[in-house]
Amino acid sequence: MDRLGRPCVHLTVLSVVYALFVVEVTCGGLGVAELSLNGVWALRNSNGSLSLSAGVPGCVHTGLQLHGVIEDPYYRFNDLAYRWISLDNWTYTVSFPFKRAVLVFEGVDTVSTISLNGVIIGKTDNMFRRYDFEVAGLLKDVNILEVWLMSAVTYASEKRQAHTAYSVPPECPPVVQKGECHINFIRKAQCSFSWDWGPSFPTLGIWKDVRLESFDTLRLLSFVPSPKYDTVLSGWTVEVELFFDVAVASKGIVLLSVPQLQSAAKFQLSLMPGQSNASFVLHISQNVTVDLWWPFGHGQQPLIKLLIDISIEGGETFHIAFRTVELVQEPILESPGRSFYFRINGQPIFLKGSNWIPAHAFQDQVTADRLTQLLVSAQMAHMNVLRVWGGGIYEQDLFYSLCDQLGIMVWQDFMFACALYPIEQDFIQSVREEVTQQVRRLKSHPSVVIWSGNNENEAAIADNWFSIPHEQRQHYVNDYVHLYVENIRQIVQQEDSTRPFLVSSPTNAVESEKEGWVAHNPYDPHYGDVHFYSYVTDCWDWRKFPRTRFASEYGFQSWPSFSTLRKVTVPADWDFGSNFSSHRQHHNLGNIQMLLQALLHYILPNNTDPVQRYRDNIYITQVMQAQCVKTQTEFYRRSRSDIVEGKGHTMGALYWQLNDIWQAPSWSSIALVCVFKVNLRCSSPALFVWLDVEDIPGVFDDNGFLMMSESYTVFFTAWRVTTLKEVVDKLHITSLRDIY
User: Fold this and answer.
1) What domain count does the chain have?
2) Is 456 one of the catalytic residues?
3) 292, 320, 348 — which closes off a domain?
């Protein structure tokens, strides 16, 4: 302690740049010529008053900011000031001097009309789909490609107005979210129209790769290896599915080999013109030991090289991993319900982790470094699972590759959340293609252990969130079953037999199925998974929490660190009663709830300096959040082996939420710029001392700790080059002693 009684921290700086984990994928030509159209395109708005260059992949907001047309969209009230961007229509244009055959868009956000040399070649209406357009007959020596983007807000509104048969709620988000309406009528990130932790930025852009492909015979669209354990043969197999676009009937040889496991086989390939696929099964030699992939904390994560050689095409190298996954739902003695837990490689695993939301409102700003830092941080906090929440996006390939290598399991939602949805044929057909593409893209990843059809939509019907008259309820139940059971579930079971599928979360799972897929009480702790939030009861009283089989959502809000907020504020904003504090809080009564919860165990800061009082209040909300989440998490972990009044055997605790999308109060444990909030590291006996280094991304090896001695050494790992002086200059130390 220093002379004022404050803790003295001896800081040792390790300047580290994290290397990315890279999955090796090499292409052997494949007989396909490719021209990437990523790069600089021309961008203009509908009336031509704005014309500038913009990057692809990218979005309109980023292009405008780079040219100085707008400031940081996250600054103060700019989410409202820049609504005009999302309400306008925009056009991307590029020219290229090649003659090719197929134009491939990996992702367009969202509603577009695409023309080549003045001829419309197609339209898009789904952010989550890949689109291929045949263009061979339209190509010239120099070609002009144009993508006209319609306002997503306008499109959603028009779709809602055209849907006259009956309403499909919700019409609009709560007023406190300051968002746009009818997001359920467009296949776009549902949180992009606003959420209770995020802004309304209905982006427009070409958000993934664009390229041209030419071929004479065929092109390989995708290949999907799936290791499976054959219980009859007591051995491993690898099923490889190959998907082709075939111009001319073709024959060839496919060689599959796993050199490390001394396994190889040849297969005959015969393809007819059009979209064609073939499936082959390689039996792994039983004379070798197969090293299994395990979740973090339970073993290693070996990734084994699989070689795919197609004689008429070329070759591919891919990494696979061997593991089994089961979702066990069995009767429990002395309980009326069923178990709900995951068995990996035959071993019951307690899932401990968090929920994942989009890391930024503008996906082109989610760098590989940023993604790596977030996932490594989750592993350093001893997490073994993340739930990719259904109101965001199917994450980029790097996310899943990193999870494979870090041993972080993924609970993968499909992108439907907190809403009912239309079931017109064009909507359903687009969703079917979306689901097919995403399952084929992701099912080779050992980290993905479960598919879930939606977030909270079973509960929305069961609890009548949208005040649907009783006589109309069955109509919405029928729509629900048609979308999630008769379409999404049917496709998943057809495409992937290696993982469990839940129709919703929370759900009673097999019990919900018995009740026609919408249970009377989807929150029944005797079955399935549960989401639980309570902000008015004492969070230190573990008796208030449901003793559930699996807690897939729970949490409490806090404000991000002052150093995070300072970048998007001015001094007038630094007060809990300011317009800014009200504007950034998208959860009704959220600021009051945080302070009332803190008052149950702490005296609120009363420093006479208003700025210091603001900073102290931020700190108190973080300590409160940390203690609340700690108490609830420890309760669930203690309940693993307990059955009390038929409840218990809790085998999963996933708090809400890991990361932030912008600088605002939320349920997250990691703020937007990798400044750690207290409850990321809550394994210490008590949470008193908090270290913050402002905008230097990195991690302390301990934080939020109880000072038990006169000195304490803490190691800080920086994720960019820094100096000891910079760290010391920006280091802030806060403890309860400082604010009382």
Assistant:
1) 3
2) yes
3) 320
